[in-house]
Automatic annotation (TrEMBL):
Organism: Brunnivagina elsteri CCALA 953
Protein name: UDP-glucose--tetrahydrobiopterin glucosyltransferase
Keywords assigned by UniProt, alphabetized: Transferase
Classification via Pfam families: Glycos_transf_1
Domain Glycosyl transferase family: start-end pairs: 193-341
Gene Ontology MF terms: glycosyltransferase activity
Length: 370
């Protein structure tokens, strides 16, 4: 897809999506929203973007080259020392075979997969590959290949946040921290919430939804739950452990519907057991004027201005969460929206990505700023 504003400076970008699910299914988590926003902003800036994703993708705003094949199992379900595994007729392999065939039509290929294969393939491609690493370190084999790419292909590795990047050993600078950004016009401010809390994201053990449910039980404030059930057994366990909790599961909602619920909540709770790479849901909440209460683990602790736009509490402390809930009246919700506008606009995100691509291609003076 090409924007009419294209100029000689315009880049031709090939985005290769995550192989854990089709775009729009929620299986890819925050990386789906990141890819969507980056594509939208790159097009607005006059670049050409082609998205490649697994068959079954649901977006209709962008033309997507859909590639068949079996999905990759999620990295979070594997042990650190597990060998790399791929299914027969792997969609990851198929997407990168497609990229190999068309690579000469593009300036940069952008890898959104948290998988070993695209890093390994980097030296075999003639077109530059930019890797957006979307999770903290989980696998020794992946750590090693990311290290090797950082050594051999300067500028090509980016993270969301420094607290994510630091989980990877031995990386060779320059490294980039791109943060995230959203289309603020899609999130409406609400100054007067109802007496309810929200929790949103993939329902999977590393997100520890049970801690937010416990907060709902202890404070007796209803909890609205939104997101893809990635681990059905885990969800059923929560339902049977807390049969009388004041919770309501609303399903995996579109951004439009999700923000209409979130904005009427007193706060969004984030309860990561892992180092959260970023936490797109945090900036989506802020954009609605909703404070965020999170464990101090990874991205959210860099995003939240403690005591101003939410509270950062001791990891795994439900008491810390409930204490923070009792202090929510001290937060000015306008400050939350303001932070989203100052720090997480799509325009600012687009500039950071453009700088990154130009640095990889050696076309930009941003290299000397690193
Ligand atoms: N999300 C959504 N609908 C829902 C709940 C969540 O679209 O009902 C999206 C949300 O917008 C966010 C993603 O799910 O982009 C969760 O991403 P996050 O970065 O918070 O965590 P990840 O899943 O990447 O670990």
């Amino acid at each position: 897809m090409q924007n009419n504003l294209s100029s000689p400076q315009a880049l031709k970008l090939l985005f290769i999506s995550t192989p854990v699910g089709g775009l729009g299914t929620g299986l890819g988590g925050g990386v789906e929203l990141s890819l969507y926003n980056i594509a939208k902003e790159m097009l607005r800036r006059g670049h050409t973007v082609q998205i490649v994703a697994p068959s079954g993708s649901l977006w209709d705003e962008f033309p997507i080259i859909e590639i068949p094949g079996n999905l990759q199992i999620i990295a979070q379900s594997q042990e650190r020392k597990d060998p790399i595994s791929m299914p027969v007729n792997s969609v990851l392999g198929n997407m990168w075979e497609y990229a190999r065939q068309v690579q000469s039509e593009y300036d940069v290929i952008v890898n959104f997969a948290y998988d070993w294969l695209p890093f390994y393939l980097t030296p075999f491609f003639q077109t530059a590959i930019a890797h957006l690493v979307s999770m903290g370190s989980l696998s020794d084999a992946l750590d090693q290949i990311i290290y090797q790419v950082s050594q051999a292909f300067p500028h090509t590795i980016s993270f969301y946040t420094p607290s994510q990047g630091v989980t990877f050993p031995n990386l060779v600078p320059p490294l980039r921290y791109l943060s995230s950004g959203i289309d603020l016009s899609q999130y409406e401010f609400c100054g007067k919430p109802k007496n309810q809390l929200a929790w949103l994201g993939r329902i999977s053990p590393e997100k520890a939804l049970e801690d937010a449910v416990e907060v709902a039980v202890k404070t007796n404030i209803p909890l609205k739950i939104m997101g893809k059930i990635q681990d059905e057994e885990y969800w059923q366990q929560i339902c049977s452990d807390y049969p009388n909790a004041p919770i309501e599961y609303l399903g995996f909602l579109s951004t439009e519907k999700m923000q209409s619920v979130v904005r009427e909540c007193k706060a969004v709770l984030m309860t990561p057991r892992w180092v959260e790479a970023f936490g797109n849901v945090a900036i989506e909440a802020l954009a609605c004027g909703v404070p965020v209460i999170s464990y101090s683990r990874g991205g959210p602790s860099e995003i939240i201005q403690d005591g101003i736009t939410g509270f950062v509490v001791e990891p795994d402390s439900v008491t810390g969460l409930t204490d923070a809930v009792s202090k929510l009246d001290t937060i000015n919700r306008q400050d939350c929206r303001q932070q989203a506008e100052n720090d997480f606009s799509l325009e600012a995100l687009g500039l950071r990505f453009e700088d990154w691509f130009k640095a990889i291609l050696g076309r930009d003076d941003s290299v000397s700023r690193l």
